[in-house]
Amino acid sequence: MSGLRYVYAICRPFGSTLPAQLTGVAGVPPKQLTHHGLIAIVSAVPEEDFAEEPLRAHLEDLDWLTETARAHHSVIDALTVVTSPLPLRLATVFRDDSGVRTMMEAHEEAFLRTLDRLDGRVEWGVKVYAESEETPEETPEETPVSEKRTPPVKSGSGRDYLRQRRRQRRAHEEKWERAEEFARRLHGALSRFAEDTRIHAPQNAALSRASGRNVLNAAYLVPRSDSEEFVELVDRTKDEEAGLRVELTGPWAAYSFSGSFGAPEGEAGP
């Protein structure tokens, strides 16, 4: 295998083969590299794209980054069907097979501990959004200029306006309080099925393009045997509170629970 080595994940040996048609980053099929009872899933990538300098430039290119992330996650998804992988960070690259084995040797004990913790478990993501309710400004009906008159100033109109604004502000605050209370209750209920949880920062609406305010962005490490009940619980809550939207994603490899080897803090599965 010529070129640099792109590493997707670390696994224990598994008895299945990956799909023959599976391709990874740069369109190259992934291979297994064994060392001391651990397996690294790797593929060869061109030096002109993945050496330090060109890679740094590529990581600023959103289109390239999106394509590479999609290929990376497709390999992880295929692994999740046959084992419980420890996914590595996007664009983890080494000079050659020897460099990958040196990395595996250096982190062998930590890899084994993490794989034991992830074995038989998957990650589910749950997000709660409070739908925004924008009240359009009231505009007076169009009146011909010739018929317009300056309206008389009503006594107390300023006080009435301020009172109305206070009522609107309080209703707005109560809405967010209800949304946050719902999110807390849901997180507590879901956590009973999970062996570990992560609360991530709310998603940036400008980046995610999701409507509404994100009041819960959580990941749950759930045994596969409990996943059906976990999903059923999420489904039962989806229409529980008007104006709230619950989104479920997964099952993923345990991106949020891979420690320093996996996704950066604050990032969940795809």
Automatic annotation (TrEMBL):
Major place of residence: other
Residues covered by region (Disordered): 131-174
Keywords tagged on the record: Gas vesicle
Keyword Magnesium: no
Subcellular location: Gas vesicle
Pfam families in the cross-refs: GvpL_GvpF
Acidic residues biased stretches: 131-141
GO biological process: gas vesicle organization
Record bears the keyword Oxidoreductase: no
Chain coiled-coil ranges: none
InterPro entries for the chain: GvpL/GvpF
GO cellular component annotations of the record: gas vesicle
Family recorded in the similarity comment: Belongs to the gas vesicle GvpF/GvpL family.
UniProt protein name: GvpL/GvpF family gas vesicle protein
Classification lineage: Bacteria, Bacillati, Actinomycetota, Actinomycetes, Kitasatosporales
